Amino acid sequence: AGTQITWTGAFASHPLVPFSSLGTQPNPIPSKSTGATVSVTLPASGAFGYRCGYHGSEVEASGSMCGAIFVVP
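RESULT FIELD:
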């Protein structure tokens, strides 16, 4: 907990979107659709999922562009 995570990528082509229905909520991962980097500090333990806004699915995490960060106490 308290670790800063940084994503680097082409967010115009692959927008970063937090899962709003899977994993620990509220999800502190921000949505990002412009630029090339974004950072967030994960304040508490949990499983925080994210996906590509174009190629990922909110309904099903398997088989799409998605990932998760597991924060342990």
